[in-house]
Amino acid sequence: MASSCASVPELVADARRLFGQVFEGETPQVAVCAPGRVNLIGEHTDYNQGFVLPMALPLVTVVVGSKISGQDVTVVTATEDVDEPHRVDFSLPSDRSPLCPGTPSWANYVKGVIQHYRVRPLAGFRAVIASSVPLGGGLSSSASLEVAFYTFLQQLKPDDGDKVAKALACQQAEHTHASVPCGIMDQFVSVLGREGHALLIDCRSLEANHIPLADPNLIILITNSNVKHSLTGSEYPTRRKQCEEAARVLGKASLRDATMKDLEEAKDRLDDVTYKRARHVIEEIERTAQAAESLKRGAYKEFGKLMVESHNSLRDLYEVSCSELDELVSAALEVEGVFGSRMTGGGFGGCTVTLVQADSIDRTTRHIKVNTYTHAVITSGLL
Ligand code: GAF
Fold first, then answer.
1. Measured between alpha carbons, how far is 8 from 6 in angstroms, rounded to an integer?
2. For labeling, which of 134, 160, 185, 350 is most exposed (least CB within 10 Å)?
């Protein structure tokens, strides 16, 4: 069954096999997939209208399925990590009434995407989901499910193909059906990411630039702390509110419009925690813009230094790291040939991302395995 090493054809084969078992020998008419992502730099900046620099991963969510007559929907997940029922049955509402979230919770992403799909009416369908994106690993398993499902619906009833509108609809699905007030980064890169490229996204204008990253001398290494993170708790929404409060006190529409000078001038009117959150965001937006320039020039040392600054800021100012992530980053930075390392994604667990010279990859993974107590799984060495 699906593992984080499974290739797309293997995942599709798994999903097709399960589809045949569940639906009595039927063959699915459609197979689609969408990638997870790793964020190289620009953390917690997207909902502050700043820059982010993620890249799509070869870890994907696959959906196979077929349209059926009537309004009934059956969806089955092949994901073994799910500790809720693996099958959900429901009917599509016949009018515009909402498709409410419920249990199992994984199905809420599917319901949310149906709710925000931009063309009506939809016919019933049967589908199976399989994924190689680790759940709760900070590599956007939820966005890849949303985008894969949206792509599946496009095959059943095409929309106008507008990619930005697709990412925004998937983000809405997460807001309304998973109760995560996320930014746009994950859905955006899952829709628009390109192999061998990072994607610099301006989350205010929604302009996106592909930056080539297919240097044979470079590896992007992802290590999983195996601490499962969940953004549905209070921490992520609290961070978002603190940023909005800081922007309000500074008299700005968002922290994207604020400078460190603005922040220092307003320091007396902000409590310590709100000041720290805002400082992280203002500096991280600037770091991300600089990092994108470094990457374009192949200046990996500079890029790596910015990654480390980003990690330290997420640890000390934004307070979204954890000891296991800090340990993985410290171990990576001890190895010669490592340019930089940081936690990636929302935090509170999940993965780290490390930029490493290709000829140092073996000693880096060995050193991390021997010197961390977290039994880190090397998820993927890319490029
Ligand atoms: C999660 C969110 F979904 C993103 O929108 C982003 O805010 C990220 O955390 C932090 O950078 O992945």
1. 7
2. 160
Distance CA 29, CA 66 (A): 5
Q: What is the pTM of this model?
A: 0.95
Quote the ligand 1 centre to 311 CA distance (angstroms): 15
Residue 139 CA to ligand 1 center (angstroms) comes to 10
* Nearest CA owner, ligand 1 atom 8: 346
* Ligand 1 atom with least separation from CA of 185: 5
Distance 163 CA to ligand 1 centre (A): 19
Q: Which atom of ligand 1 is nearest to the CA of 138?
A: 12
Return d(Cα 118, Cα 354) in angstroms, integer: 38
Whether the complex's predicted ipTM is more than 0.95 is answered with yes
Tens of pLDDT along 339-351?
A: 999 999 999 999 9
Mean model confidence pLDDT for the chain: 94
Look-up of token digits 């799984």 = 377
Contact call for residues 16 and 31 (beta carbons, < 8 A): yes
